[in-house]
Amino acid sequence: MATSSRLVTSLRRISTPRVAPSFQRFRFRPANQIRWITAASSEPHQPDADGTVKGAPAPAKTIAFTSEKYDVQRDSKYAQLSEDHVKYFQELLGSESAVVDGVSKDATEDIEPFNSDWMRKYRGHTKLVLKPQTKEEVSKILKYCNDNMLAVVPQGGNTGLVGGSVPVFDEIVINLQKMNKIRSFDDVSGVLVADAGVILEVADNFLAEHNAIFPLDLGAKGSCQIGGNVSTNAGGLRLLRYGSLHGNVLGIEAVLPDGRIIEDLSKLRKNNTGYDLKQLFIGGEGTIGIITGVSILCPQRSPAVNVAYFALESYEQVQKAFKEAKGQLSEILSAFELMDGRTQRIVHDVTGKKMPLDGDHPFYVLIETSGSNADHDSEKLQAFLEHVMETEIVSDGVLAQDQTQIQELWSCREGVTECLGHWGGTYKYDLSIPIAEMYQVVNDLRDRLTEAGLLGKEDSPVIDVVGYGHMGDANIHLNIPVRGYDKKIEKLLEPWVFEWVQKRNGSISAEHGLGISKKPFIGYSRTETMLGLMRQIKDTYDPNGIMNPYKYI
Amino acid sequence: MATSSRLVTSLRRISTPRVAPSFQRFRFRPANQIRWITAASSEPHQPDADGTVKGAPAPAKTIAFTSEKYDVQRDSKYAQLSEDHVKYFQELLGSESAVVDGVSKDATEDIEPFNSDWMRKYRGHTKLVLKPQTKEEVSKILKYCNDNMLAVVPQGGNTGLVGGSVPVFDEIVINLQKMNKIRSFDDVSGVLVADAGVILEVADNFLAEHNAIFPLDLGAKGSCQIGGNVSTNAGGLRLLRYGSLHGNVLGIEAVLPDGRIIEDLSKLRKNNTGYDLKQLFIGGEGTIGIITGVSILCPQRSPAVNVAYFALESYEQVQKAFKEAKGQLSEILSAFELMDGRTQRIVHDVTGKKMPLDGDHPFYVLIETSGSNADHDSEKLQAFLEHVMETEIVSDGVLAQDQTQIQELWSCREGVTECLGHWGGTYKYDLSIPIAEMYQVVNDLRDRLTEAGLLGKEDSPVIDVVGYGHMGDANIHLNIPVRGYDKKIEKLLEPWVFEWVQKRNGSISAEHGLGISKKPFIGYSRTETMLGLMRQIKDTYDPNGIMNPYKYI
């Protein structure tokens, strides 16, 4: 791991490892140690690979039904599931473990994990879960459902944040967990071909053995599946460096509602022969077909990783630092994460942990570099840090000396979400906003809640308004920790936040997708023309509307 | 520019600049010096910014009509242009220069440049050219055409290689050259927003002033327009490093055939709100709408560039070298270009130029690195070269010491296409093939032509079969220099080449697109299911079929 003996004095603050055990850096965790640390959601509970929730405080049946919470009516065009339907699927899939049948018998306990999500926020009424093993089985299932007007919901690791992979009513769950084979890896081209149900961490560990890296990383990697990642166009921690899945996915294998199989597992970086249809499935959230396989370009794994953490006195300085980092660190910059001072104070207050830097500063930034030569990278990072210190862009900083300190610094960023939940609840928004104005939403909302008398006193219902996130991707997590959920607060938040974002041509869902929770608000980020064109796509490819209904657009 | 004083002895061969004036490296040419050097087409003639051809050996009217060459019939569903139509457009666009009217008067001379391409390969019968200045004008033009069943062909710099931007019959040419403004650049986020008609080189020069780089580069940069680049999903020289336009284009502004305007000039890296429709326009070749604006993520410009050129004894060694380059040069590798020994011998024979390395070797590779620190990059490249020399992956090599030598080495790659035309003609294929088998197509075709008695003797009609191209993108240019075009040869080439590529799941058009020339062969790279889905897209968005007819799918 990267070390450097030539650090500026002021950056040598960390001389001995001070690991707070509750804030380990999970990107380096062993394969069997799974923990949720996605930026916008570090809820403590999580499903394991087959969808069950461990350590949940209450059984799934206590979760409110999505249909009631979102006031949705079942569309009567869909058929009701019968025992005949189940019989067809049992014969088709053969093995008993491939069908969880709650139609001809009571299977509530077995089915509940597939009916709800790990956040305990969404809950459906499904009575049938199917676990196909081949694309042909998926094809036959979908054709049958399409012919019989049976609605379905594709489900991967069920780790989404917007309710996209959980049924609303009695949609049949088509779970991809049994399609979990890595099909091939070419270590010359770096192209991986794998089943959709391969768990992200399994793929990444496999690639590590071949000195390659999956171009996507996120906190849910121990449970989420690559097919789900592609279907939701997951963003995550490596986007700044490796770009989005729209650029990295080379091909897909997918099944359309009418059973037709798209065989497009291209291993080619270039293929200009017609519309790039796979792109519609990337981020299509299972609404026009089910992805059963993915081919993806995987970069070489970087042997050298450096992490620095520093304080800045204004958002203008943060922007300057980002520009300098892009210029000077350029090809080795792999993360530029922003945390405002309030988030760091909360981490300190809640955990009692000593922070890497003394004093209170309005902004903190964590920088990570990943490259092929540790000495070169350290030298670049050091030159960058010297420059930003000398020009007073940065007022103080530390540079990790070893793996332990790297984890320590990352914990200041990754521990934020967990600490925010300390007082009872947190309203969370995952926003893309052009960088220049990105942080302003935090100040404006703080003013708004203060003026309304909901923030500022010792017993105010709102604890604070904070902002942090992937600065490099112009993606901010606007969080409002509160003593409890309260309609009065909610009325001040929505649609105000969405309107604020719309005025700046931002996105109301940067990386989490639409699912059921953002569906009503898509108009804030897309024009009526765009929505019309999207509906045409949906109607063209899924004319019966059996795919993941009540969601998306 | 990069220099290194610590080179291994065997890599010091180039000690003084030896520039062959006819082979300058054009990526560094001044803005007003335009030359065609795309990998698959270095034909000497070119259109300037307004579509006229300079230095053409014969007037455009001697070019064979595409309709005859490809035996296409005019679709009678399209209306014939009348003087009333022209009057409408004249009133709409106002300025005289915006309408080239060959309907109500003879305007052959003015219109011919828009009716044919710079390769003198495609020629249409248009009688009307429109040059709108705003998206609203484009919208009104298309709506009128759609309502009146008038077919159109969108045209950018008209630099395509497959006849996509040239009319076949009397389609109205909608030329984007008057929409040529750079709208904004944010030097924090690196997002450029510009009109579709901005010339690539103008955009890149503008970005250079802001220390950024357009993520696409190609030989036609002095004439091609960024809207056309996006519409054809151009590949080019920077793809290995910066990825494809599917990853870099953040948003588009486009007009649909019915006049609806898509306002999606997103400046956001992340926006997961619905189907990513812009992707259909990237590489859509103007068949579902006209792109009028583009927003695109532009990386920082690298201050350090190094180039090395070396010889290898087998294609296996080339693959090993590529793998090592990816591993050791990793984040700074910006080109890995393959040239077989025959191409280098031809360059030597045709130009009389002394090649950088002595002796005959079966393969040569050109490597370029681009990074933020010249010393670091030189050190990495040197370590890599020492390794590949010591392990005998590479048998000989040189490393450029200055800008002149960089150009000299690039000329060995970029001069290939021009030299291949020396004997009379060249059959050219632009193929994507998985790297392991990529070069085999050259050997197999050579055997085939030799067995048929067309190659191998002093007076054989086929001079040679050679391969070169973008190894890093698995993109090979299979070229067959001949004494003259000959049906006997053609029968041995097609469909054999396409079948060969199909068997390896390759692409018959890596970066050049379909246009009219590849349309008949798309079935070799796409399944019937995919084609069906593509036709559904076309029918959905362009139900009257007025957009760029007779082409694509």
Automatic annotation (TrEMBL), chains A, B:
Catalytic activity: (R)-malate + A = oxaloacetate + AH2; (R)-lactate + 2 Fe(III)-[cytochrome c] = 2 Fe(II)-[cytochrome c] + pyruvate + 2 H(+)
The entry's keywords: FAD, Flavoprotein, Metal-binding, Mitochondrion, Oxidoreductase, Transit peptide, Zinc
Cofactor(s), names only, from the UniProt record: FAD
Every FAD-binding PCMH-type domain range: 122-301
The EC number(s) this enzyme carries: 1.1.99.39
Gene Ontology MF terms in the entry: (R)-2-hydroxyglutarate dehydrogenase activity; D-lactate dehydrogenase (cytochrome) activity; FAD binding; metal ion binding
Source domain of life: Eukaryota
Catalytic EC class: oxidoreductase
Any one biological process term the GO annotation gives: malate metabolic process
Family in the record: Belongs to the FAD-binding oxidoreductase/transferase type 4 family.
Function: Catalyzes the oxidation of D-2-hydroxyglutarate (D-2-HG) to alpha-ketoglutarate. Also catalyzes the oxidation of other D-2-hydroxyacids, such as D-malate (D-MAL) and D-lactate (D-LAC). Exhibits high activities towards D-2-HG and D-MAL but a very weak activity towards D-LAC.
Protein name: D-2-hydroxyglutarate dehydrogenase, mitochondrial
Organism: Lophiostoma macrostomum CBS 122681
